[in-house]
Structure formats: structure tokens, C-alpha cells
Design goal:
Chain lengths: ~120, ~270
């Protein structure tokens, strides 16, 4: 006795199965996302984000910590999202820190120029 | 029965059509990300220095909109919109930083120019000061010798056989005091000399007294004692012959040696 196997049925089965996988499947472990997020945090720290952007940097680090918990619970999809956000948070913290440093450098050099100008003026009088 | 079916079908179709034709779905996060993106899309600094992040922002923004239009889960849309907004913000920071760095390099150029100008001003100032010093020295009638600048107070500035300075001698010392006030790093060495007439001991003493009389006049003028050295040489170091009256008069003198700017004076 041949089993009942119409092409429509087969297709439906495959479609349903893939839908189930897509929705419920935790996906692969987000190892590369974890790595990227951590290296972004290191880079931000190298840009003095701890000094200039401590709040945003902490936010990024907290997200990584939360993601680790999620990974342990095998909630990979949520963990991946958390890590992706941590990465851009850290990058933004680093970028803002760099901007702030550049801003300070501008202020310092302008201050310097002003001093020189005053010295010049006083020496010319 | 057939009529009902076709009515249901028509309603279904129209719902579908309305669904397709309606404006794109709205989501606050996506709107926010789009606004952030639009604000920097045309920024030349961002274009120069934040191109990669700007592109990522655009990709994520499109992805968020697609998900939204497809009716995806709100959390997922929010997540992608979050990434889009962050990328746009990073691009904006990169643009700002590039702008500031340009400002720094042009300011550094300006600073370099100012420092050059200052150096040349200082050189000019030094030249002017040297000229002024030469003029002062010339006014004092100081002569350049191998021991430095030497100002000679001739015999005529003193009373005969006495150590007291005449009024004209005092005026000369006053000019010297003015000079020393203007150049506080300079010191002087006052040296008395006589001709060979008379006892050597007397001449030695007279030379010392004349030198000290110049010293006390300088002190009167407010010059501090540690800037003045005094020495009597008596008949030693004649500058002319002692055989003629004119020669002897040249030998009776007080020489004032002016130090260099470090305050040191060559002694005999």
C-alpha cells in the first residue's frame, strides 16, 4: 500500500516545517556578534569613551552582559539583537569621545593662538 | 449561494487592494531613524569621513521599512530601526570630527605663522636693544677695548691732587648710573690710575680714593654696592708717557670697565 503523497501535501509540509524552524528556532549561537561587540567596546575604551561617554559605554557593556545571560539560556536570537545593539552603542560612544577630544584640541589651540597674539601685541607696544 | 461567494470575494479583493495602496506603515522608531539619517544625508563632512556608516544607516533603514511594510514583529522593526539610527549617529560624529580636525590643522598653520612672526619680532627687538645699548655707550663715550667697554674719566673731572669729583665728573657718573639702571644685569669695575710723579704709596692711595669717590657717587645715584668693584692701581698701567705734561695728564684717570650682560668683568 503506497502512502498518500500528493505533491501539494509535500509542499505544504515543507513550507510549514520551514516556517516553524524560522519562528521557533533559536538560530546559531551568536559567537561572531559577541566578538564584534566586545572588540567595539575595547576600541571605544581606547578612544577614552570611559572618560567622555561613560553612560553610553556602560549601556553597551550591560547589553553584552545581558546577551551572555541570554546565550546561556540558549535564547540566541534575542542575544544576537542585544549584541548588535551593544556594538553600535560602543561605536557611537567611541565616535563621540573622539569628537569631544577634537573639540578640546580646537579649544586648546585657539587658546594658544590667543595667547600668542596677546604676547605679540604687547611686545609691539 | 454563488452571489454571496462573489460578494465575499469582492470584499476580500478590495481589502487586499486597500492594503497595497495605503501609505507605508508608520513606526516611531523608524521615523526617528529616518530623521537622523536625513539630517546628515547631504552633509559634505559626513560624505567625506562617514561614508561607510552612512551607507549602513541607509541599508538598515531600508530593511526596517521593508519589515514594517511586511507587517513584521514590532520588536524586530524597532531593533533594525535602532541600528539604523545608531549608524546615522556614528556617521554624524565622524563628520563632525573630520570638520574639527580640519579646523585643528588650519589653526596649527595659523599658530606656526604667529610663532614665526614672534621670532622675527624678538630678533628685531634684540637688534633694537643692541642698537640702543650702542647708542648709550656712545653717549657715555665708552670705548671698546679687549677688556670690554671702558669709560675713562679724565684728570680734568677731578680736583687737582684730590679725589673729589667736579660737577662735570658727577654728571658723567650720573649718566653711567642711568645706564646701569636701564641695564640692571651690567656691573662696573672702577679702576684708579695716576702718573709717576711723587711717591708711589701716595699715588696708590690717590688712585684708590678717586676710584672710591666714583663708587660713592654711583651709590648716591642708587646703584647697589654689589654691582660695583673698586681697585686702585697707582702708577701702574700708564696709557701714555710720564715724560710730558700731556702724557702725565692722560695717565691720571679713572677707568670704568662695564661688564658684559652676564655681569662678569675681566680683571687686570
Amino acid at each position: 500500500m503506497r502512502p498518500y503523497l500528493s505533491p501539494t501535501r509535500t509542499l505544504t509540509c515543507i513550507a510549514l516545517a520551514s516556517l516553524l524552524v524560522a519562528c521557533a528556532g533559536p538560530g546559531p549561537k551568536p559567537d561572531s556578534e559577541l566578538q564584534s561587540a566586545e572588540s567595539s567596546i575595547k576600541q571605544a575604551e581606547a578612544s577614552d569613551a570611559r572618560r567622555f561617554q561613560p553612560v553610553l559605554l556602560n549601556q553597551a557593556m550591560n547589553k553584552v552582559a545581558d546577551a551572555r545571560v541570554l546565550i546561556n539560556q540558549e535564547q540566541y536570537k534575542d542575544a544576537r539583537h542585544m549584541l548588535q545593539q551593544a556594538e553600535v552603542d560602543a561605536q557611537l560612544a567611541g565616535a563621540r569621545a573622539e569628537t569631544e577630544k577634537a573639540r578640546r584640541a580646537v579649544a586648546e589651540i585657539n587658546n594658544n593662538i590667543e595667547n600668542l597674539r596677546q604676547q605679540l601685541n604687547s611686545s609691539q607696544q | 449561494m454563488n452571489a454571496i461567494l462573489s460578494i465575499v470575494f469582492a470584499i476580500g479583493l478590495s481589502v487586499l487592494m486597500v492594503g497595497c495602496a495605503s501609505t507605508p506603515e508608520q513606526n516611531a522608531r523608524v521615523d526617528e531613524a529616518r530623521a537622523t539619517y536625513m539630517a546628515i544625508e547631504q552633509d559634505p563632512n559626513v560624505a567625506r569621513s562617514g561614508a561607510a556608516q552612512l551607507r549602513k544607516a541607509k541599508l538598515e533603514l531600508d530593511r526596517a521599512q521593508t519589515l514594517l511594510d511586511e507587517g513584521a514583529d514590532a520588536n524586530r522593526v524597532d531593533h533594525v530601526a535602532y541600528l539604523a539610527k545608531r549608524h546615522a549617529e556614528i556617521a554624524m560624529q565622524q563628520g563632525k570630527r573630520a570638520d574639527l580636525e580640519q579646523e585643528i590643522s588650519s589653526a596649527e598653520e595659523r599658530r606656526k605663522q604667529l610663532m614665526l612672526q614672534m621670532k622675527s619680532n624678538e630678533a628685531n627687538q634684540a637688534r633694537r636693544e643692541a642698537e640702543a645699548l650702542r647708542a648709550e655707550m656712545a653717549a657715555l663715550k665708552a670705548e671698546k677695548t679687549e677688556r670690554g667697554m671702558v669709560l675713562t674719566l679724565g684728570d680734568v673731572l677731578f680736583d687737582l691732587n684730590k679725589a673729589d669729583l667736579k660737577a662735570s665728573g658727577k654728571r658723567t657718573v650720573e649718566r653711567l648710573a642711568d645706564f646701569m639702571k636701564q641695564y640692571p644685569e651690567r656691573r662696573v669695575r672702577i679702576e684708579g690710575y695716576t702718573d709717576s710723579t711723587g711717591a708711589a704709596a701716595y699715588n696708590q692711595e690717590l688712585s684708590e680714593r678717586r676710584a672710591r669717590s666714583v663708587q660713592s657717587e654711583l651709590l648716591n645715584q642708587g646703584i647697589t654696592g654689589n654691582r660695583i668693584e673698586v681697585e686702585g692701581y697707582g702708577e701702574a698701567y700708564p696709557v701714555a708717557t710720564n715724560d710730558t705734561g700731556a702724557g702725565r695728564q692722560q695717565n691720571r684717570r679713572v677707568e670704568i670697565v662695564i661688564s658684559d650682560e652676564s655681569g662678569s668683568i675681566d680683571t687686570r
